[in-house]
Write a structure and sequence with these properties.
heterotrimer; A mainly alpha; B mainly alpha; C mainly alpha; A: mainly alpha; Helix Hairpins; elongated; B: mainly alpha; 5 helices
Chain lengths: 117, 137, 507
């Protein structure tokens, strides 16, 4: 499981970076989304995966008797997902506006701010 | 998208989904669920309604601007966060609870109100975004 | 509980933002709330600062969960200073925005977003938890995205795309670094991380994590090879927005770098060499960039990059005096850079352009205003006794101690180029004979404004100019503050103990 996840994370990072390096705005956003998902999975993987043992103490005992799944990575991922939800919806509105105003989705033609004036 | 099946179904689905979202919201404290997921489900209910009946009808149904839910939700969450400091001089965000559980809802405490705030903010934000995108398309 | 004060700066801005959202329909009420609220936040920041100054580091555990399990908020001298500076810069920008931002932008929630931005800044300075820092960073960038795109002009949107992409990319790298750090240590509390990272035997992995943090924060702070988004975007929004960006946003990156590299990744010769090299190159490249530009607000953007080098340099030298120099520089820089962009806004109001080719003759027409603008312009150079001089002095002295003449060369070069650039601005914009510019229709020139608006534009500039004069002439006090911060940062035991309690007592 860990091995598969590691490969998947590598793929997500690689394809995210590849998409970011394309010139199209839409692909740029897709690249950012893939990268974000890769980072979320990385937290999940590095937080040590423990299957089927929720971090809940049984009613009759005072502390954990067994190995348990760490709840922190899941909380982190949830937070990161919520944040990326906000960022991505903003990004989509932004590229839509940018496409309407600049009339191109080619990043190479969005160079007026770097022009010498 | 305006098929008669979807339109008829959406009228029944809207209250059902809203009820389900509140169920998810309330169950969130001990089981999977919570304000964020509940809020998303509630906004999906309205989006589905908008798909089937047109944006105008959904807006008439909601009556107010969904953006108004944002400050309301923020205020609820904010008050829930500040309440422990005001009531019992504990650090902010400490969970304070009523001693006895209420019927149906279960234990009531500041965390529940915080979640309700999140629920409202999520509905407000996602509906505002989706309505804006749909309008400008 | 006295510890409650730690969260007051955050709470004030959150409450303000909520109130501002409620009064969405009335710009007039929004203006009043924002103006009064900024004063309130300044008072709260002064209160927090004086408490921390007198009683030492304050901590509060959010949710009453014991550290290192809960989220800790820590106000040490460094954080309290940054909160105070945010409040000072925030009050100036708030008034300047009320005076200059167009109604169309105010209608779309400019002021609430501005306070969300200040909320995020205060949170980032006060938090003691690395993941919480990530969350505050996201709040900052989301609100800054809205501020930079508000208005939707062509150049704004183009700038926003670049700003947006690289800042999200930085966040992803930061998140990756947090993930690796959590995998290594199983903790997120910065004080706890400091102890646990020191105990890790696999130094290679620690170094890789440190580099990830360096890149993530480096993009946000705009250090040498990672700065390209800054000059492409900072001149596009209205001057009030540029002012808060230029003054505060890059400094959050610097703050995070200093915090992480004095607390968690300490005493690594390899990293120090990298940071020093980057600092030297940042100074050099930023200065060169400023040299060739013609648009004044673009020049100021490059000056920001160049001067980030001074702060990183202090971190790289890693002695108490050098870090004190960096802190002094941050204090000076936040005030002056905010003011510089407001000055560019004023020049734009006077003439209707920011291009040096067309500007000119401001001194002949408005001698008093020119004198007012002289203060921030020459403070940034650091002509003694103005404020930029003192920190450079201690940075050069410290560089001499390690006999790194290459660094001294970079400092002097950057300072000299800054002097040259500012002198050029002074000559071209103020002294040169003014051209007859075509009058722009419907443009509200400065002399056409009502007295109330004029005060709202000039007041903040005068306020910040006064503060930078104080930093220059009262350098003794600031130096004392900077030295205290430097001592606290170098002896991170104090920070750790105030968060985790006395470690020695624990088994």
């Amino acid at each position: 499981m860990e091995f598969l996840l590691a490969i998947l994370i590598g793929l997500l990072y690689a394809s995210g970076l590849y998409m970011m390096l394309r010139r199209s705005l839409v692909k740029l956003i897709i690249g950012l989304i893939l990268l974000g998902n890769g980072a979320n999975l990385l937290i999940f993987l590095l937080g040590r995966i423990t299957k089927g043992k929720p971090p809940i103490i049984p009613e009759e005992s005072k502390f954990f008797l067994d190995a348990y799944a760490d709840p922190v990575p899941q909380a982190l991922i949830l937070t990161a997902i919520v944040i990326s939800f906000g960022l991505q919806s903003f990004a989509i509105v932004l590229i839509k506006r940018a496409y309407k105003v600049v009339k191109t989705d080619d990043l190479d033609q969005m160079n007026s701010t770097d022009e010498f004036s | 998208m305006k098929t008669i099946i979807l339109r008829t179904a959406s009228n029944y689905l809207l209250p059902l989904l809203l009820l389900f979202s509140i169920f998810i919201l309330l169950r969130g404290h001990y089981l999977p669920g919570g304000g964020f997921v509940g809020g998303l489900i509630a906004s999906i209910a309205f989006v589905l309604h908008a798909f089937a009946n047109g944006l105008e009808n959904t807006k008439n149904l909601i009556k107010m601007h969904p953006g108004f839910l944002m400050p309301v939700g923020l205020l609820v969450a904010f008050l829930a966060g500040v309440s422990p400091a005001l009531i019992s001089n504990l650090p902010f965000m400490t969970g304070i609870w009523f001693p006895e559980p209420l019927a149906v809802i279960g234990m009531v405490g500041s965390a529940l109100f915080f979640d309700i705030g999140v629920y409202l903010v999520v509905i407000g934000v996602s509906l505002t975004i989706i309505f804006t995108i749909t309008e400008s398309a | 509980m006295i510890q409650h004060i730690v969260l007051y700066p955050i709470i004030v801005h959150l409450l303000l933002a909520i109130l501002l959202l409620f009064s969405w329909n009335s710009i007039k009420i929004q203006k009043i709330i924002s103006a009064a609220g900024s004063v309130l936040s300044l008072l709260v920041a002064i209160w927090l600062f004086s408490t921390v100054w007198n009683e030492g580091t304050l901590t509060i555990q959010a949710g009453n969960w014991e550290a290192p399990f809960g989220i800790t908020f820590v106000a040490d001298a460094f954080a309290a200073t940054m909160v105070l500076l945010t409040a000072i810069s925030g009050i100036a920008v708030s008034y300047f925005s009320i005076g200059t931002i167009l109604k169309a932008r105010l209608k779309f929630g400019y002021l609430p977003i501005l306070h969300f931005l200040l909320l995020g800044l205060n949170g980032a300075f006060l938090t003691g938890d690395i993941f919480n820092l990530y969350v505050w960073f996201e709040i900052i960038i989301i609100s800054s995205f809205v501020l930079i795109t508000l208005g939707g002009e062509k150049k704004q949107l183009e700038g926003a795309v670049k700003y947006f992409t690289l800042n999200i990319f930085a966040s992803v790298i930061f998140l990756t670094a947090v993930a690796v750090l959590y995998g290594l240590t199983g903790s997120l509390n910065m004080a706890d991380l400091s102890l646990k990272v020191a105990a890790i035997e696999n130094r290679g992995l620690v170094e890789v994590t440190a580099i990830l943090f360096l890149i993530g924060f480096g993009i946000k702070a705009a250090i040498f090879p990672l700065y390209f988004w800054l000059p492409a975007s900072y001149h596009t929004p209205p001057p009030a927005v540029s002012a808060v960006f230029g003054g505060l946003l890059t400094k959050v990156g610097v703050y995070a770098l200093i915090r992480v590299f004095t607390l968690i990744f300490v005493g690594d010769a390899f990293l120090e060499t990298i940071i020093l090299t980057l600092a030297g190159l940042t100074l050099f490249v930023g200065a060169i960039g400023a040299l060739v530009q013609n648009n004044i607000s673009k020049i100021f953007s490059y000056l920001i990059i160049s001067h980030i080098g001074f702060m990183i340099l202090g971190l790289g030298l890693y002695t108490e005096a050098a870090i004190a120099g960096a802190i002094f520089y941050i204090i000076h820089d936040i005030v002056v850079k905010t003011n510089l962009f407001m000055v560019s806004g004023l020049i734009y109001r006077l003439k209707g352009t920011m291009s040096m080719k067309n500007l000119g003759g401001i001194y002949a027409k408005h001698p008093l205003l020119s004198l007012l603008m002289l203060v921030p312009l020459f403070s940034v150079v650091g002509i003694p006794p103005l404020s930029g001089f003192w920190p450079k002095l201690s940075l050069i002295t410290e560089s001499f101690k390690i006999e790194n003449y290459w660094l001294i060369g970079a400092i002097i070069f950057a300072t000299f180029i800054t002097l040259f650039v500012i002198a050029r601005i002074w000559a071209e914009v103020f002294w040169k004979e003014g051209k007859k510019l075509p009058t722009i229709q419907n443009f509200r020139y400065f002399h056409l404004l009502k007295l109330e608006k004029k005060i709202q534009i000039l007041g903040p500039i005068a306020f910040l100019a006064f503060i930078s004069l104080y930093i220059g002439f009262g350098a003794e006090n600031i130096q004392q503050l900077a030295e205290r911060v430097g001592t606290e940062l170098m002896n991170n035991q104090l920070y750790i103990e105030s968060v985790l309690g006395n470690i020695k007592e624990q088994p």
